[in-house]
Every structure is written in structure tokens, then in C-alpha cells.
């Protein structure tokens, strides 16, 4: 969900306002996903590299995650469930503060009966950290194979990514789902994340469907 800062700067607003608008944009895309029968939506909320940002900005983004994970009623109304991927709370290096841990755990528990859409939030997430851990775990379980690595990812039940959306004019892949995006279609857009609309999302889904029919 890239470009919150640029969105705010263009409007002459503090970066924090961009993150607030970004959280709203995600709520819109979650709604649209449920309406479009998307099975899995995974959003990059906060990376293992983002902790070095200014303290006030980090604090604001964290409180927005509490808000985001708190949208359990909306999730239940849409038959959706919330999940999370990131560095496991009790493992070395993990940085998720306790109040965000609680919000994540509550969101997962309160929405677990949702059978339509799975919304996974990547928080304190980095693909390299995920893969390193998966390989280390796989090595304790016998000969390492692609299957054994896949079984040790943060969420082994997550299907391969069909469509990856990168906003704000960046045409590179960051440290996101590097294992899972093999074969994914990539939709690049100039729009910053807060300006990413349900309409453009629908267009990207249609283009994906056409390329796979
Ligand atoms: C994405 O917006 C939000 C997070 C990474 C948490 P940015 O904060 O990266 O916005 P830009 O890239 O500075 O515009
Ligand atoms: Mg950015």
C-alpha cells in the first residue's frame, strides 16, 4: 500500500494524514473484494524495515492497525475473516507491540467463521525473514524441498498470488511475498494508495480474468 506519504505531501498535509487515508482506502478495497468474490486479499501494512521511520509516524501507523484489526463487525457482515502474517510475536527480532498483538489476536478470533474472503494483513512482515525462517524450520524436518519450504511459510494455507498490485508509480517488487508471487500478474499504477479506487481495482481484476481465460 505504497504512496501514503506522497499523497499527503501533494495535498500539503502531514504524512500521518496519508496513512489515515490509506487505512480508509483498504476498507474500500476489502468491501470491493467481498463484492467481487475475491477469495484472498493480502495487504502489506508494515514491514520489518519500516521500524526505522520517525517515532511519531510509526506510532500513528500502529494505531491505525489497531483500528484496521478492529473492523471485525464489517468483516463478519461480509462473511470475511482476518488473518495476519509477520514475525511471530515470541520469536527473536519480532517487534509487534503487545497492544497490536492483542488487536491481531482478537481480530483473528472474532472473524474466524468467515468463509468468503480471507483478508491477511502483513505487519512486521518481510519476505526474506519469512523465507529464512521457513528454510531453517524445513532443515529440522528432513530433506529440504520446495514443498517443505512452502509448508513452513507464515501461512502455509495461503494460495499462490494471482495478482499483485503496486501503487504510486513504483515499478519494482519490494520484500513482499517473494515466494508466493511466482507466476503472479502485476498491476502497476501511478495512483498513490489512498487514491487507488474500487473502479481501478475492478479493472485490474477484469484484466487478470481475461489473461487467464
Ligand atoms: C505506505 O506509504 C505506508 C507504509 C509503508 C507504512 P509510504 O509511507 O511508503 O508513502 P511514500 O512512499 O512515502 O509516499
Ligand atoms: Mg513508500
From TrEMBL:
Q: Does the keyword Transferase apply?
A: yes
Region named Disordered: 1-20
PROSITE patterns, sorted: UPP_SYNTHASE (PS01066)
Which Gene3D superfamilies does the annotation name? Answer: Decaprenyl diphosphate synthase-like
Q: Does the keyword Ribosomal protein apply?
A: no
Q: Name one Pfam family in it.
A: Prenyltransf
A single Gene Ontology biological process assigned to it is: polyprenol biosynthetic process
The molecule here is called: Unannotated protein
Keywords assigned by UniProt, alphabetized: Transferase
**InterPro entries attached to this UniProt entry:** UPP_synth-like, UPP_synth-like_CS, UPP_synth-like_sf
- Cofactor (UniProt): Mg(2+)
Name any one GO molecular function: ditrans,polycis-polyprenyl diphosphate synthase [(2E,6E)-farnesyl diphosphate specific] activity
> What phylogenetic lineage does the species belong to?
unclassified sequences, metagenomes, ecological metagenomes
Amino acid at each position: 500500500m505504497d504512496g501514503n506519504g506522497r499523497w499527503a505531501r501533494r495535498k500539503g498535509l502531514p504524512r500521518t494524514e496519508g496513512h489515515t487515508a490509506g487505512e480508509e482506502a483498504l476498507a474500500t478495497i476489502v468491501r470491493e473484494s467481498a463484492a467481487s468474490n475475491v477469495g484472498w486479499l493480502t495487504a502489506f501494512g508494515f514491514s520489518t524495515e519500516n521500524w526505522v521511520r520517525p517515532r511519531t509516524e510509526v506510532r500513528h501507523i500502529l494505531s491505525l492497525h489497531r483500528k484496521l484489526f478492529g473492523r471485525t463487525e464489517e468483516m463478519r457482515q461480509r462473511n470475511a475473516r482476518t488473518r495476519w502474517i509477520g514475525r511471530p510475536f515470541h520469536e527473536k527480532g519480532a517487534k509487534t507491540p503487545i497492544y497490536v498483538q492483542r488487536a491481531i489476536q482478537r481480530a483473528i478470533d472474532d472473524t474466524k467463521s468467515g468463509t468468503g474472503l480471507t483478508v491477511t494483513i502483513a505487519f512486521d512482515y518481510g519476505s526474506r525473514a519469512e523465507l529464512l525462517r521457513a528454510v531453517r524450520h524445513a532443515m529440522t524436518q528432513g530433506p529440504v524441498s520446495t514443498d517443505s519450504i512452502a509448508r513452513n511459510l507464515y501461512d502455509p494455507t495461503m494460495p499462490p498470488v494471482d495478482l499483485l498490485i503496486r501503487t504510486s508509480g513504483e515499478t519494482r517488487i519490494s520484500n513482499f511475498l517473494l515466494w508466493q508471487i511466482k507466476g503472479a500478474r502485476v498491476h502497476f499504477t501511478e495512483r498513490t494508495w489512498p487514491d487507488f479506487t474500487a473502479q481501478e481495482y475492478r479493472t485490474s481484476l477484469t484484466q487478470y480474468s481475461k489473461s487467464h481465460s
